[in-house]
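User: I'm putting together notes for a lab meeting next week and I want to include a structural view of one of the chains we've been expressing. I don't have a solved structure, so I'd like a prediction I can at least talk through. The sequence is below, exactly as it appears in our construct file.
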Amino acid sequence: MQKEEVLFKTHYNGLCHFAWKIVGDLAVAEDLVQDSFVAYFKNTEQVSDNEIAVKNYLYSSVRFACYNHIRHEKVQQRYWNVVGFTEEDNIALELNMIHSEAIQEIYRIIEQMPTSCQQVFRLGYLDGLSNLEITRELKISINTVKTQKQRGMKMLLKRLNPEFLPLIIFLLKNI
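Assistant: Thanks for the context. Below is the predicted structure for the 175-residue chain, given as structure tokens.
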């Protein structure tokens, strides 16, 4: 067996336990210990061949690697606390994407409506104006407003992708 292999087998388990006691995660502890061995093997000429010096170097290296890991974890945690991103945010993000796709689909269908129908539909459903406000703004009869809104809604429901229908019904109820 080579000198490095003997050194690794002699100290690996003890160093892993030492690191695990500090970081509390065995997989992380093993990674940190392996990194410390790699650092030692790269810098063997800077450390005495004395076994006690090597052991002290490895334990110090592992200890500082653990502290750096913990410090890094705390920085990440502070970042996520400031940013405030959680799994719920991820769900909200997905819902926003679906909502945006549905709105895009609605606008695409509205663009295909005849101009007068499009105008009344936008004012009534997108801008939230009442039928009376639309009649005043466009100077058309209330029956025309009602007819154009009905015609526009029929076109929308006919051309709308069926997977968006429940979302559209929900949105229209909450306008």
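A couple of points you could mention at the meeting. The longest helix spans residues 51-83. The domain at 3-83 is CATH 1.10.1740 (Rna Polymerase Sigma Factor; Chain: A).

User: Perfect, that's what I needed.
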